Amino acid sequence: MEDTMTTHILTTRANFIDFMGHALEGNGMPPIAGRILGLLIFDGEPRSFSDLATELGVSRGSISANARALVQRGSIIKVNMPGDRQDYFQLADESFCVLLQTIATRMRSTSQAVQGFASELPDDATPHKRLDGLAVFFTAMADGIENAAKTLNQRC
Amino acid sequence: MEDTMTTHILTTRANFIDFMGHALEGNGMPPIAGRILGLLIFDGEPRSFSDLATELGVSRGSISANARALVQRGSIIKVNMPGDRQDYFQLADESFCVLLQTIATRMRSTSQAVQGFASELPDDATPHKRLDGLAVFFTAMADGIENAAKTLNQRC
DNA sequence: ACCTGCGTTCAGTTAAAATTGAACAAATCA
DNA sequence: TGATTTGTTCAATTTTAACTGAACGCAGGT
Known about the structure:
homodimer, mainly alpha, Arc Repressor Mutant, subunit A, 3-stranded antiparallel sheet, 10% strand
């Protein structure tokens, strides 16, 4: 009974980790980054570098690269345990907010880029208007996402 | 002078098309789809199937596949010109709105999926809470994006 | 000093995605 | 009918991204 329960949780855990791998793949991140994030979200507590490699069944090189990318994005943080020189990783408190901010920022820079193209064109040219419209579109999207961040009532 | 102007516009056009190719690449679409979209946004008017292949310098097979994908997404529409049996494509009026709706929908389904994983876990388990939080996150994002769509005062 | 464990790096490999190009069917025209 | 044009399909190819694994430097431990 206890075992059944545990098994079910472990199955769910594995499925969730797998799911996150695919989900973040669709957002321009490598699958393993998604799996690391999924594992850390699920477990909540710090996990060691080696554990990640072992549990996910991937090379240490992969953990190194992908964990670094996640740290850089602010999704996870690296922590040190006293008397243990391994690196540990855990979900960042502001993880989700950071994710939103990252996306919003990307939208804004895209908007700016499009605006740049528009400004190259004569004001009366119809492409100018359309590119302007596209720039507005990206800005609106950035606004919407940042707004969502605030809605989450966390510090963003 | 006239020539300089035209050249500059053409250069900007080429750069914009190229930019869109890269931009949509980051959103999970093939580069050529982005370039087709960029070309149609810039030009505004219908362009023929063959023109797309010629101007973008890619195979007809690629135009066929990518244009179809864009049509299916609702970003562009296929139109027919009287007395010309070629297929023409042009930017859909609701192009940008559709883009937002697509993203919002994906967010909601992701949220639901995560919620599904959460429901597999006992209510008192801490992973349950975290997955719930993640689901809320995706919902908030979907809301934010749909809100942005409405802000654009177009019919969405 | 030597050994062991840890994380990084990067050249090589593998796997996945995108694109090509030739074959094809349908439609048009002479 | 036969020749042409048009868009689709799919197997082969190219391109790109991701991953591996061995070599390396660094820290501690014995």
